[in-house]
Amino acid sequence: MTDTGVSPGFDVAFERARTVGTTSAHHLNAAGAALPTTGVVEAVVGHLRREQRDGGYEASAAVAGRIGELYAGIARLVGAEPDEVALFDSATTGLRVLVDALRLTGPGRLLVSRSTYVSHALHLLTLVRERGLELVVLPCDATGGIDLEELERLLREGRGDTVCVAHVPTSSGLVEPVAAVGALARRHGARFLLDATQSVGQLAVDVDEIGCDALVTTGRKFLRAPRGTAFGIVRRGLIADLAPSAPDVRGADWTSDLDWSLAPSARRFETWESSVACRLGLAAAVDELLERGMAATERHLVAQGERLRGDLAAVPGVTVQDPPSSRSAIVTFTVAGLPADRVNRRLASDGVRTVSVPASHGQWDLGRRGVPAVVRASTHVYNDDADLDALVQAVARLAGQAAS
Ligand SMILES: Cc1ncc(COP(=O)(O)O)c(C=O)c1O
User: Which SUPFAM superfamilies does the record match to this protein (predicted)?
Assistant: First the structure.
């Protein structure tokens, strides 16, 4: 098997040493929820203890400065300004709040990528059904990513378009050509909302380079933060035009009987109640990522994905299901004669953690490709060659048994 080609200066042993979960199994499920470091867990648990001792509001006041640093850290990570950051409890919440704030109505049009995630898609489909919007699922080209010529042809029609794209989908290692999408959206005056749930933390994401109007991501995946954390970026030019459909005391001031004013920053999209402990965990995770370096992290993860795709493709009976433009740490495959959920369960009993992704999580992708489900393996900086070998060997055993 080939070597992962870990980038110089990148210390997998150090990451493993501060990641307790690496000792119990081969965790290849970063795209579901990555393993957090000891530092992240300590930040959460430490704050829960503080709440136990001092009271929730008092503990929150004591860490207000650290939460302020979180906004600054997120802004640095994605090339935004701190006042463009809104904290959420999941990517789905963030996408819902921002889409609702766009107040989309017919005869406007939604141009969506095949990579769109189920929960986001179901929200958009609800709007289409109830508000008379038109929806176009963008075709893909030979790379598997959005067909940019077709996107430009549609945008030229100038039909009040909003473009929604997942940078990396839940259902494959595809990386969409988001900077090209952003350039086209700008040129034709369309809004561009990016679902970066599977990309922030694994690929360098810069909102200026991409040219999106808003972005949403989650904490528990490639950021290695606790569950129940997420954030969005809304570019300054757009904030004043977007009003949350349900203003909350966190981002709105109830000024008189019938009136209120909204915070001038992206805080207008937030809610008062949140897990401060988990947000401190997110702050620790963002700091650790910035220290490790996004470029080195991306190099490592892309190299691991490439190695896994090559090794799995060489196993008789295994089909790698990723489209050609897959350049990420997410690798999807099927085993002839074995449903994906059975492969997943058998791998778990061999101490290898993957997930099976059914077409119902991405009908515009897996459904349209006619693939009922895939097994998804996804690596992170704490995975070493032994983890990758364990997966490939276990899959080879299963494929051999299925064939005999
Ligand atoms: C591409 C993509 N977008 C959005 C989501 C939803 O994220 P969350 O569970 O934080 O709402 C997921 C979850 O897997 C995803 O893969």
Answer: PLP-dependent transferases
- Rounded Cα distance between 86 and 75, Å, is 10
User: Is ligand 1 within 6 A of the CB of residue 169?
Assistant: yes
CA of 308 to the centre of ligand 1 (A): 23
Backbone angles phi, psi at 333, to 5 degrees: -155, 165
Output 43 or 8, whichever has higher pLDDT: 43
Task: Assess whether the C-beta atom of 192 lies below 6 angstroms from ligand 1.
Answer: no
Q: Is residue 199 part of a domain?
A: yes
Pairing between strand 109-112 and 134-137? parallel
* Contact between residue 332 and residue 357 where contact means Cβ atoms under 8 Å apart: yes
CATH number of the domain encompassing residue 397: 3.90.1150.10
Domain of residue 335 covers 12-36+294-403
Residue pLDDT, tens place only, 55-110: 999 999 999 999 999 999 999 999 999 999 999 999 999 999 999 999 999 999 99
Q: How far is the CA of 196 from the centre of ligand 1 (A)?
A: 9
90 CB near ligand 1 (under 6 Å):
yes
Asked whether residue 303 falls in the same domain as residue 274, the answer is no
pLDDT tens digits, one per residue of 111-133: 999 999 999 999 999 999 999 99
CA distance 249 to 268: 9
Q: Which atom of ligand 1 is nearest to the CA of 120?
A: 4
Q: Is 117 in the pocket of ligand 1 (CB under 6 A)?
A: yes
193 lines ligand 1 (CB under 6 A): no
